[in-house]
Amino acid sequence: xxxxxxxxxxxxxxxxxxxxxxxxxxxxxxxxxxxxxxxxxxxxxxxxxxxxxxxxxxxxxxxxxxxxxxxxxxxxxxxxxxxxxxxxxxxxxxxxxxxxxxxxxxxxxxxxxxxxxxxxxxxxxxxxxxxxxxxxxxxxxxxxxxxxxxxxxxxxxxxxxxxxxxxxxxxxxxxxxxxxxxxxxxxxxxxxxxxxxxxxxxxxxxxxxxxxxxxxxxxxxxxxxxxxxxxxxxxxxxx
Length: 239
Known about the structure:
six-stranded antiparallel beta sheet, five-stranded antiparallel beta sheet
């Protein structure tokens, strides 16, 4: 086991949702990338304890909400705030440090334990197409993705992870990592039988460093009922 994975075994964070606040939606990414990300809800007035994660993503249901956090691990944890057009390092939580913050309607917070100074930059999806197979059965329908990556960082990464999320409107249902090991190529073809009504599918790419650290999500591509051949580039919305 690498030093990064050994350190991530100690990642711990308490997240609380104040009373009278909308539910918080948490995505927990397994530290060893051995499990699909888990999606859980924290109701108003409740809190949960998370451990052994490589990242946590947090969004509020409805029009936005509040969050209280405490870093209970021996690791420093970086917090990034994402909006559709921006991603910024909001703050760094020291060991034992707590923090209260708001989350806007179209925002998401990332909590990343700091295990190594090098964090791979995020890829940029440059092309996303919906390829229709048999129109009568939806058989062989697929999504094609192509992304770009800074050439000067290619030698520092193992490869890329491809993610697909299932949504009902703005509510996440499930997130899946589609490859068992990071892939070296910069294209992917994913079976997708299409969507109807409020259902939408979201796609994103991450880079995984040779040090084992997984970077942040790329821009998010969305397949919804309005998509014909191309997916919508939704920017830095939640996956």
